[in-house]
Amino acid sequence: MSTPSFSRRDFLKAGAATAALAATASLPGTRGLLAASAPNYGGKAIPFGLQLWTVSGAFTADPEGTLAKLAGLGFKGIEFYTTFPGGRDAKTMRAMLDKNGLKAVGYHIGGLNTMTDDMLKQTIETNQIIGNTRLGVSFTVAGGGAFNPTAPTTTATKKEWEDIADSFSALAGKLKPHGMATYYHCHRSDFARINGETTWDIFFSRASKDVFMQVDLGHMGTAGVDQIAGMKKFPGRAKTVHVKPANGGDGRLVGDPNDGNLAKWPAIFAACEDKSVGGTEWYILEYDGGDMTQVEKTAARLKEWGKL
Fold this sequence. Notes:
globular; 308 residues; two-stranded antiparallel ribbon; disordered N terminus; 14% strand; 10 strands; alpha/beta; TIM Barrel; 2 domains
């Protein structure tokens, strides 16, 4: 039986092909598979921040150490929630940010009631000190019903949601002279339907274009909403985007097998980074009830993807 000839060139080609396949198979989401090509996650076109609610326990106990840890992991920005820990003032918090090379890229100030005129002046002053220009509302209660982020049902009317949108538009007008903007962050319940329309679509169809969307990719995915199609409806308004898994259980991580967004991440990132679709300026990692271990593991994953 004759032995086929195998030139040095053939040997080098075979080795290169094997190495490429092995590298692809080691990527998150493709482990154990010899994929034809590696997923393209789009590089570092947009910086990554972190919503501090993810590490609220650590941040409350040791804010300076927590910020230093996040900066060391590669995060460039911080999104705040409610008040600063331990009664610290805005100047102290700004000094911590500056020391660690971090930017304030958003602030969840609570419900719309916290943006009324008697509180707005102080809110503006606080955010000017910390260098934040984006003031967000993380929930609103329409129709007097209880807020439920896990059940997409509503007792509200379309008119009530349009009135809420008008309130946001008025707020955006008050913030604009200060170089600030407002945004609304979605939960699963924001995709309840009224006569076939989601309340999210009713809201953003009505609100001024100065009101931007904070798309939560986890909540949208869990609600069964196509995130890319959702951004295309309101192009260029997904200025900040919460990066988290969809349809996962406790302890789920971005890029893990139980991440319902796993196969979609390359396309989602591409849509966010397209100015005619998402127009995204910041990605913001968030885990509800998370901890630093989750953040560390996800930071490693994002670095493997070339995003952090």
